[in-house]
């Protein structure tokens, strides 16, 4: 008489935490005017990090923010999502802009760890964006 074992533990793996945050990020963008653009950026972001580095990718995303203070577009939203996740994992704080921490405080080892964490998070974000956000040029 074997019964399935149900685990009631609240402990979650880091992969589950990454997935949950990525899901929340995509859900927060869904329905905004820039959802499709965010999806496109999410699909490309890991390649940008691999080609140019985390710091330069964040700098690029933030440079494309709206001119008016308080406004958010796909670039700034993605930069904040990425900064908040990586900042939480490395510093224990949600940082809206990880660039300053990278430039002023991060050691080489911490920067490498931040890059690996960003790539792991972006893999989940890319998958959920592909599934949930309308692709550019696709029929709605």
TrEMBL record:
<dbReference type="Pfam" id="PF09701">
    <property type="entry name" value="Cas_Cmr5"/>
</dbReference>
<dbReference type="InterPro" id="IPR010160">
    <property type="entry name" value="CRISPR-assoc_prot_Cmr5"/>
</dbReference>
<keyword id="KW-0614">Plasmid</keyword>
<keyword id="KW-0963">Cytoplasm</keyword>
<dbReference type="GO" id="GO:0051607">
    <property type="term" value="P:defense response to virus"/>
</dbReference>
<keyword id="KW-0051">Antiviral defense</keyword>
<dbReference type="GO" id="GO:0005737">
    <property type="term" value="C:cytoplasm"/>
</dbReference>
<protein>
    <recommendedName>
        <fullName>CRISPR type III-B/RAMP module-associated protein Cmr5</fullName>
    </recommendedName>
</protein>
<comment type="similarity">
    <text>Belongs to the CRISPR system Cmr5 family.</text>
</comment>
<dbReference type="InterPro" id="IPR023101">
    <property type="entry name" value="AF1862-like_dom_sf"/>
</dbReference>
């Amino acid at each position: 008489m074997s019964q399935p074992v149900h685990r009631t533990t609240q402990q979650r793996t880091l992969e589950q935490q990454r997935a949950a945050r990525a899901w929340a990020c995509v859900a927060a963008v869904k329905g905004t005017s820039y959802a499709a653009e965010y999806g496109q950026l999410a699909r490309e972001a890991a390649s940008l990090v691999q080609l140019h580095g985390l710091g330069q990718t964040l700098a690029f995303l933030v440079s494309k923010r709206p001119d008016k203070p308080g406004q958010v577009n796909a670039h700034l939203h993605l930069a904040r999502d990425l900064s908040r996740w990586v900042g939480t994992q490395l510093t224990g704080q949600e940082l809206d802009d990880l660039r300053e921490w990278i430039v002023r405080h991060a050691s080489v080892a911490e920067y490498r760890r931040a890059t690996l964490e960003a790539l792991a998070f972006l893999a989940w974000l890319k998958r959920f964006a592909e599934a949930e956000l309308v692709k550019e040029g696709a029929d709605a």
